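Quick illustration, no need to memorize.
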Amino acid sequence: MSCKSQCIVALDMGGTYIKYGLVDDNLSVLCDGSVPADSHDSREVLLDRLSEAIAKGLKAAKDNGLFVRGIAISTPGPFDYAAGVSHMVGKYDEIYDIDLRSEFRRRADLPCDLPIEFMQDAAAFLKGEHEIGAAKGYKNCMCVTLGTGTGYACIIENELLLNERKGPYYVLARQPYKNTGKLIEEIVSGVAIKKTYGMDAKTLAQKAKSGDNDAINAYFYLGKVLGEALLEVAEIKKVNCLVIGGQISRDFDLLYDGILTGLGNLSENITVVPAKNPANAALIGAAVTLF
């Protein structure tokens, strides 16, 4: 069978839907789609939804005459990525401490020898952007994903920095910000924006684009907090590219000046850019682990 006929079924677990796609060995995403899933659903519903996404990917591969080399899943944490066991609380609670590999093999009728790999979503996102996106060509880079929460990953000398369980070695979201008594995720995230400003990030951005000074200043502050938080990461002095992803990154221009201000003198050596493939980077990055 030729290499061109092979693919990975990749999943990206979100809070409201599970995205799936076929990633070929050219790192193109084929036949993508999604399955609705509320991260607060029951155990059976969540396992069925995840297995359904895998099954739809497998069917798409079969319909297109593609040989499936494995299943790659991008998921938020906390998670034991090596063991395939979720430790999430507050989202996907009902699948806590379950052997997901075994569940998927049973529910999606997968062969015992078909590889199933899990990857932290921010790490998968950065890997995808490093392969074919905004960080391509940079051997030292970072990403921050800004959505409901705050994700972080880093590549040094073209290698992802991960812990012994293949998870993030540094959890930016849980770091304290100066003497505010708040963690980074309690300031720079979708949930934090809604709580602090009484509106979602999209509405706040619309106000800023309409010339509302309070909204403009709010986005500047969010960027500045993010830049200052990254100064605390040891690897920041080695990094030449910082990629901003996630839903909030759609309004990257509103964050940009604040990020540069927060980074201070280091901003002269770091290219700060929005993601080039925000929709598919995590699928591609997760799939790379199996190619």
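The longest strand covers residues 67-75.
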